[in-house]
Amino acid sequence: MDTLTTQGWTLIRSDLADNVLADLRDSVFTAQGPGQRCLLDHPAVRKTALVFRSVLIKSGFLTDTAVTIQAIAFDKTPATNWKVTWHQDLMFPFAPAVTTLGFDLSTVKAGTHYARPPRSVLEDLLAVRLHLDDCDETNGPLRVSPGSHRQGIIKSAELSGIAARCGEVACLAKAGAVLLMKPLLLHSSSQAVTPRHRRVLHFVYHSGEPITETWHRAV
Fold it and tell me: Which of 31, 40, 135, 196 keeps 20 to 30 A from 100, CA to CA?
């Protein structure tokens, strides 16, 4: 728990059975590109979100009122060997469009309303990344900048400088491992040197006080 608080990330085991991981690989991931958003209506994804919610509440990473607000599927293949520069996860889905002061940058992506919540809400979010394949240095692992989440919302011009000051760590993991991460933590991902599947189910949980706006989904 202290590592998550101070460093902004930690790795834990999921203890999901091999057949569950196989079902998620087969039923969720398609050849439609590097990512799919808003997957909480998918039965297998929803079930997994609820399993993790229960486990993380029992282990103290979430409060007993926590809800899942987002689920995204990411993959890297020879055809979708993408990279992202240093950034924070700031935009989350809502329904309908936000109107409360402090919820900024309202936009629409693929018919869903997104906005940036206030820092106080962002600090109550927890990202949970389930690895469905082994991830090593050769297939574009997530890289994080430990402790950078304590800087709050960082201006674009300052991202690389803060990442350089805080340093970086490659998050290597075996299939079935789970990365817990604060969305305000600076993170990036390089292209794979040896492209192959690097499938990840990325959940986000809100564990704070009820907000004035309505999440797109709250599971």
Answer: 40
